[in-house]
Amino acid sequence: AARGARSRRPRRLINLATIALQQPADGTFPFTVPAIRTLKSLDVACTVTFFVGENGSGKSTLLEGLALAAKLPAIGSADLPRDETLAAQRRLAKALRLTWTRKAARGFFLRAEDFFGFTKRLAQQRAELLQEVKDISAQYRAQNRSTHAEGLAQGPMRASLADMERRYGVDLDANSHGQSFLKLFQSRFVPGGLHLLDEPEAPLSPQSQLALLAMIGEMVAQGAQFIIATHSPILLAFPGSRIYTFDRAPIQAVEYEALDHVRLTRDFLNAPERYLRQIVRTEAPSPQRGERAKE
After folding, report:
1. Is the terminal CB of the chain with fewer CB neighbours within 10 Å at N or C?
2. Backbone angles phi, psi at 197, to 5 degrees
3. Residue 225, exposed/middle/buried by CB under 10 A (0-12, 13-18, 19+)?
4. In what order do the strands lie in the sheet with 194-198?
5. Residue 92: which of 27, 18, 21, 194 has the closest Cα?
6. What does pLDDT average to in each consecutive run of 10 residues of the chain (295 residues)?
7. For 6, phi and psi rounded to 5 degrees?
8. pTM summary value
């Protein structure tokens, strides 16, 4: 069920309306996952839809299949059609039927696990470009060539560096993971596009999750649509969102306040000692055999 939306919001456009499984399950993964095997039609005609569930429940698998079916580019990883780890998800994509109110030709798919590798590769590319600029400078000065010729030769590398810095800052890898993720997310945003995020909270502190919520709100106002797989009670609180739990088969809509993620987090924060007494051994460990207790 959709959570209550605030009044006087700008009119938003919806891209993707429903996701349906049009072929019967064939007994192989991912069709053995209960949430996917029992999928009939999922209404995602909402600006922000969340997939929630335990690891292995199928939420990320369906999101990957959806990204393939919608032909969205992936950020920070190999192109989805060529990604060797997504063979099962490609079979799922072929079995999905998507209905659109307005076909989105733009957007992206972003997995938190791909983000970490992306920052390392970006830092490596920047270092290589800087080295090329340095090598050209040394070569042209050794040949006593003009600074004008040197500048022309360095032009393509400097242009690439300038574009990289404009998009991600001077050194994306030098930022905190949260800052880097938010910069990457913002730099790739496309107004009016469909954006799929898989566990975006992984590199984010609670404060950065609030910043991500603010960004999503601004992007929704520009016609964007989001489908997000997450464990985060902070992100799940986005107003007006629709939440589906994959812990039940078939997939079911659920209210925010009824989510186990929310109730457990709230109960723990209200009385952490009640949980810790049961799950953490707090008494002092006894001396190991052959060791003398400290005086």
Report:
1. C
2. -125, 130
3. buried
4. 107-111, 194-198, 225-229, 48-52, 242-245, 252-253
5. 21
6. 43 78 82 93 95 93 93 73 80 93 80 65 72 88 89 86 66 57 77 90 89 92 94 95 94 93 89 84 57 48
7. -75, 155
8. 0.72
Closest by alpha carbon to 230, among 197, 183, 265, 181? 197
Kindly state the tokens that stand for 12: 């938003």
Q: Tokens for 58?
A: 């199928």
In this prediction, residue 100 carries a pLDDT of: 93
Residue 295: predicted pLDDT: 44
Contact 116, 203 (CB under 8 A): yes
Instruction: Provide Rg for the chain, Cα atoms.
Output: 24
SS (H, E, C) the chain: CECCCCCCCCCCCCCEEEEEECCCCCCCCCCCCHHHHCCCEEECCCCEEEEECCCCCCHHHHHHHHHHHCCCCECCCCCHHHCHHHHHHHHHHHHEEEEECCCCCCEEEEEHHHHHHHHHHHHHHHHHHHHHHHHHHHHHHHCCCCHHHHHHHHHHHHHHHHHHHHHHCCCHHHCCHHHHHHHHHHHHCCCCCEEEEECCCCCCCHHHHHHHHHHHHHHHCCCCEEEEECCCHHHHCCCCCEEEECCCCCCEECCHHHCHHHHHHHHHHHCHHHHHHHHCCCCCCCCCCCCCCCC
Instruction: Report CA-CA distances (Å) from 97 to 2, 75, 111, 294.
Output: 23, 24, 23, 68
